[in-house]
Design a protein that fits this description.
The complex is a heterodimer of chains A (505) and B (74). Chain A is of the alpha+beta class and 505 residues long. Helix content of chain A is 51%, strand content 12%. The chains are: A alpha+beta (505), B alpha+beta (74).
Chain lengths: 505, 74
C-alpha cells in the first residue's frame, strides 16, 4: 500500500470492486446517492451529473463532447470513466441506427432527485428522536467522548499503556475498561495494523505506521473499510448468497454522515441490521448511546464529517484537539494531530540531529520512537537522536521521509516557530531535513507500481488504439511503441473497452 | 487478442537493475522477472517483490561501510 493514501481514494478502491447489482441497491437510498455525489466525484464529473440529472431522455455523447474544449478531452474522459466505474452513468454502444448515448442509471437518478427535492418517505436521512434529550449531552461532550475513544484506539496501535483520566466522559461507564474493545482490537489485528508477537503481545506493523500518520478522517475510513471487509468475509464463510448486509452497512455509514451533530436520533426507526451495527459504531466512537436511554443515538463529529471535503477534515482534528486540551491532565496527548501546537507537545530539533520533546504522552513518545533513538526520559521531556539507522528502519517500515519531516515541523516547539518566523528561516534545520531525505533515497533503490502488462497485440492499430485509450483514462504508466507493450495501473475499464471493441468489429 | 499479465513495475537505476537481473537468474531460477522492459525498468511477479527487495539489500550491505558513531555525551 502506498503511504498517505487519501481516504476517498481508499474508499473508491473498495467501491470499484463492488458488483453493479450492489450499486443498484446502494443507490436506492437517497442519502447514499447524495453522499457519493458529494464525496467521491471530481468537479467535472459533478457538472455532468447535474447536467444529466433532469434530462428526460438519454443524451448523445456527441453533443456532450461539444461542451468540451480539445485540451480538456482527457479530463472529460477521465470524469466519465469515474462515473462509469461507480455505476452512476450508462454509456450505450453505438450502432448503425442510433448514436452513442449517455444517461444516469435509474436508481441513482431517482435517489439524487429525491435527496435534492426532499420528497418521499424513505427516512434515508435519519429520524430525529422525539424523546427528551439529556441536556448534558451537547456537542462538547460528544467531541470529548469521540476524541477519547479514538485516542484509545491509537494508543493501542502504538502499543502503549492507555492513560486513565477522570473526565466527564469517564462517568458514562466508559472508563470501566482500558483501551479499545476486544472487537476493535481483533479488527486492528486482522487488518494488519498490528501484529501478534510470539509472547502474545501485539506490535505495530508497517500499515500501522501509515495509519498513525494519517489524518483523523482517513483513519476512521481505514477502520470502517476493515470492518466492512471483515463482515464480507464472515458472511462468505457463514451463509453465502445474501449480499444485503454489505449494502445496508455502507448505506448506513453514508446516512450517518448526513446527520446533524448534537441531535438525538431514534434507534427504533432503524432496520434490524442497522440496529445491530450500533454497538460496533459506538466502539469506534462514531456514535454515542446514552446507557440510560438506549432509544436514542447521537452521531459524533467522526461520523458527521465522513463524507465532507478535505477542508472540513482539518477542523475535525482541530476540534478533537481542542476537546482533548480541555481534558485535565491529558493536554496535547492527541499527538497525531498536526494542529497540536500547545507547549506540551513541543519538539526542539537541533542541527546535530538531537531532538528534545516536551511531552509526557506515551503516544507521542511512541511515535518519536518510530524514527529516532530515544536517549533519556524525564517527567516532562524526552531526548532523542535521529540516526541513519533509525531513519532507515522507519523507512523500511513504510514511513516516508516527508512524513517524518512534516511530523517534526507540525509539532515543532513554539519557540522554534517564533525564532524561524523572526529570522525568516525554515522551522527545522535544513541540514537535518536534507539528511532525512538523503537517507530515504539511499534505502529506496526501486520504485514499484502494481498493475498489468499488456503485450502480444494482433495489429499495430490495436496497440495504438488501446494504449491511447489507456493514456486518456489515466491508467497508463509506461509504454514502448517499438516493442508494442505497455504497462497500466488498472485493468477493469480496458477489459470493458476490449470487449466493446470486439463486439463493434 | 492482447495478453494482460498481472505484475509489478519496478523502476530503478541501471546498476540496481542489473543486480536484480543477476539475483533473478542466479538465485531465483528466473522465477521473478516477467519482462525486461529497458535499462531502468522490469516487470516482476507480485509475490516476488519482497524477496527481491531483501536480496537486494543483502547485496548492497556488502558494499556499505558502517558509520562511526559520533563521540559526544548524550
Amino acid at each position: 500500500m502506498a503511504s498517505a493514501v487519501p481516504s476517498s481514494f481508499m474508499l473508491s478502491e473498495y467501491l470499484e470492486k463492488l458488483p453493479g447489482a450492489t450499486f443498484r441497491k446502494l443507490y436506492q437510498q437517497p442519502s447514499t446517492a447524495f453522499a457519493i455525489f458529494r464525496r467521491m466525484l471530481p468537479p467535472l464529473a459533478k457538472v455532468y451529473v447535474q447536467a444529466l440529472l433532469y434530462m428526460s431522455t438519454p443524451f448523445s455523447v456527441k453533443d456532450l463532447n461539444v461542451w468540451v474544449r480539445p485540451e480538456g478531452e482527457t479530463a472529460s474522459k477521465r470524469a466519465i470513466g469515474i462515473l462509469r466505474s461507480l455505476h452512476i452513468v450508462q454509456v450505450g454502444q453505438p450502432d448503425k441506427t442510433r448514436p452513442q448515448e449517455i444517461q444516469l442509471t435509474a436508481n441513482f437518478k431517482r435517489s439524487l432527485r429525491l435527496a435534492l427535492e426532499g420528497g418521499g418517505s424513505h427516512n434515508s436521512f435519519g429520524v430525529p428522536s422525539t424523546l427528551p434529550v439529556d441536556p448534558q449531552i451537547d456537542i462538547a461532550f460528544l467531541d470529548v467522548w469521540a476524541g477519547r475513544i479514538w485516542q484509545d484506539i491509537l494508543y493501542y496501535v502504538v502499543n502503549s499503556v492507555p492513560i486513565r483520566t477522570d473526565n466527564r466522559a469517564g462517568s458514562s461507564g466508559y472508563s470501566a475498561h482500558g483501551g479499545p474493545r476486544a472487537a476493535v482490537r481483533e479488527l486492528l489485528l486482522m487488518g494488519g495494523l498490528v501484529q501478534r508477537r510470539d509472547g502474545g503481545a501485539v506490535q505495530i506493523s508497517e500499515h500501522g505506521f501509515n495509519f498513525l500518520l494519517q489524518e483523523a478522517n482517513a483513519q476512521v475510513w481505514t477502520l470502517l473499510l476493515l470492518w466492512l471487509e471483515a463482515a464480507d468475509r464472515s458472511r462468505a464463510a457463514g451463509q453465502p448468497g445474501t449480499n444485503l448486509d454489505n449494502v445496508e452497512m455502507l448505506s448506513f455509514l453514508f446516512m450517518l454522515a448526513s446527520l446533524e451533530l448534537g441531535h438525538a436520533y431514534d434507534t427504533s426507526a432503524l432496520t434490524e441490521t442497522r440496529r445491530n451495527m450500533l454497538p460496533a459504531l459506538a466502539d469506534f466512537g462514531l456514535i454515542y448511546i446514552d446507557p440510560r436511554n438506549r432509544d436514542q443515538y447521537f452521531p459524533t463529529r467522526l461520523a458527521t464529517t465522513l463524507t465532507s471535503s478535505s477542508s472540513a477534515l482539518r477542523s475535525v482534528s482541530a476540534s478533537l484537539d481542542a476537546a482533548t486540551k480541555k481534558t485535565p491532565g491529558d493536554a496535547g496527548s492527541l499527538g497525531t494531530n498536526p494542529a497540536a501546537t500547545d507547549e506540551n507537545g513541543g519538539i526542539v530539533v537541533e542541527t546535530n540531529y538531537r531532538l528534545y520533546a516536551y511531552t509526557s504522552s506515551p503516544l507521542q513518545i511512541a511515535i518519536l520512537n518510530l524514527f529516532s533513538r530515544l536517549n533519556m526520559r524525564w517527567p516532562n521531556m524526552v531526548s532523542a537522536r535521529l540516526t541513519r539507522e533509525s531513519v532507515r528502519e522507519a523507512i523500511a517500515d513504510g514511513i516516508t521521509a516527508n512524513q517524518i519531516i512534516s511530523y517534526l515541523a507540525a509539532h515543532a516547539h513554539p519557540q522554534m516557530v517564533r525564532q524561524a518566523a523572526a529570522k525568516g528561516t525554515p522551522v527545522l534545520p535544513p541540514t537535518v531535513v536534507d539528511q532525512i531525505r538523503l537517507w530515504q533515497l539511499e534505502s529506496e533503490r526501486m520504485r514499484t507500481t502494481p498493475g498489468f502488462l499488456f503485450k502480444d497485440f494482433d495489429s499495430l492499430d490495436e496497440y495504438v488504439d488501446m494504449s491511447k485509450y489507456a493514456e486518456e483514462i489515466g491508467v497508463l504508466v509506461w509504454k514502448n511503441d517499438r516493442r508494442r507493450i505497455f504497462f497500466v495501473s488498472k485493468v477493469e475499464q480496458l477489459r470493458d473497452w476490449l470487449r466493446a471493441r470486439k463486439k463493434g468489429v | 487478442m492482447p495478453r494482460a499479465i498481472r505484475g509489478v513495475l519496478i523502476e530503478c537505476e541501471p546498476a540496481i537493475k542489473s543486480i536484480l537481473v543477476h539475483i533473478d537468474s542466479n538465485e531465483l531460477k528466473n522465477d521473478a522477472i516477467i519482462e525486461d522492459l529497458d535499462d531502468t525498468r522490469l516487470v516482476v511477479k507480485e509475490q516476488m517483490v519482497k524477496t527481491l527487495k531483501s536480496r537486494l539489500n543483502e547485496k548492497l550491505k556488502e558494499t556499505y561501510r558502517p558509520e562511526q558513531p559520533l563521540e559526544d555525551s548524550d
